[in-house]
Design goal:
This protein has 9 helices and 15 strands. It has 344 residues and is α/β, with parallel strands linked by helices.
Length: 344
Amino acid sequence: MTTPPLRVAVLGAGYFSQFHYRAWHRMEDAVMVGVCDQQADRATATANQFGVDSWFTALEDMLETTRPDALDIVTPPPTHLGAIESAVKRGINVICQKPFCGDLATAQKATATAEAAGITLLVHENFRFQPWYGEIRRQLAAGLLGRVYQATFRLRPGDGQGDDAYMARQPYFRDMPRFVIHETGVHYVDVFRYLFGEVDSVFAQLRQINPVISGEDAALVLLQMSDGVTAVLDANRNADHPASNRRRTLGEMQVEGERGTLRLTGDGQLLLRRHGDNAETSLDYPWQDEDFGGDCVYLTQRAAVAALLGRAPAVNTARDYLVNLRIEEAIYASNTEGRRLALG
């Protein structure tokens, strides 16, 4: 018997939501049944663009009318808890964008609410689905580098300079009291956990370079992983890196081990330099340069559909994602206290 497609309603029609809509539109086992945005013109335009029959300006109306299997929340963090509670009381599973609920306490409340009702709550943490990280994970599992010593990601999107920083695409970035770690760095906390396991301790130094924004836009974060790997996030949104599209990878990664060094370029290329050699060789692997980050939004939503249809275990559950938020809190606390903090 054929399983009917997952019926998805989407909340939000802003900048990043377009990647969500395009991903849902491409799937054969998921169908969008509703679009909701406070701005009626955005809701109608999005519904028309993707052939969705129903649009709304109020979430409650959309959920009552369409009764979806899942709600995809693509709105700012202050709206997350209320939207999750609205879905949970109707027995609707949820996929929620990050920053998840804005802070740890609110995220814990949302997680507990969903779990108490037996509702699946997933976080749309899509960076781990960028194909280069999947390939790095496969290569490390196969022993390409042997024992891994250190991994460094240099975040260099180059979009943070000037008086008009972030205005063209995501102007709310300017008003976030916590920025480069809360909005972007948490992605790499998750990537490091995906590649190397859990975090034992944190040391961080944060700073603000561009005075027109409220939060920090540069950071140096050292994570000591449980398996002995030292993971470093070297973030600066004002500086850039060489790439045909600087939003593809947002920077460059280097993983160093006993057998050599694996390097991710801004164009998604993986280069291996074996220990003792000077030349690098390219590692070919399949990936699609579509939409954002190697089509990672589509890949994230594919995994969510598989989980919600009972075909695969859930990835990025809210319960597991709380670990990322605890690490985020430790990063800010380490910067404030000026010391290394152990994680319990």
